Amino acid sequence: MSDQFGYPPDREKRNAARAKALQALLIEKGVITGDTVETVLGYFETKMGPFNGAKVVARAWVDSGFKDRLVADTPAAIAELDFPTGMAGAEGEHMKAVANGPDVHNLIICTLCSCYPWPVLGLPPYWYKDPTFRSRAAREPRAVLSEFGVNVPPDVLIKVWDSSAQIRWFVVPERPAGTEGMSEEQLAALVTPEAMMGVALAKAA
Predict the structure, then answer these.
(1) Nitrile hydratase alpha/Thiocyanate hydrolase gamma domain: from which residue to which, for each copy (predicted)?
(2) Domains in the chain and their CATH numbers?
């Protein structure tokens, strides 16, 4: 990733300290209990996250009919799969998938803040929220993608999709070459959150 979106090495530590202080204050005021935060974090670590998105993408790779339905009506297509209750809620409202292809590459940003489809991508990374990334990706997506190591050919159209509370986008990346005969589980292992954001390609087999 470009140094443009780098952060001081102690940023995690400082932010964790702030979060702990806020948590202690909310507990003291009776707004939450001592177990509330751990329960929410555990939910997004075990039930909602990029492992769900990887399964969705893998199914789209092996089933063209599902892929068409996913792009046409994302929540309805996702509901066909065996996922935990809550895929359509908790930051998953109005999810919408777009598919990469030979002639188009999709990039997901949020110019306002950090709207993100948590149930399929997990929690957003720091750089996704960064004002520099948000503004530059909207103005010069090809240059930003190049800094991420994704060199999109000049004849391939780049589409930038702006997530919001109304629509939370994610990308179905192109299936890597040489993956014929792989199971859905094996294919899912090739899908990263970055690929579903459009700032990376699916891993090679």
Answers:
(1) 15-200
(2) 8-46 (no CATH), 49-197 (3.90.330.10)
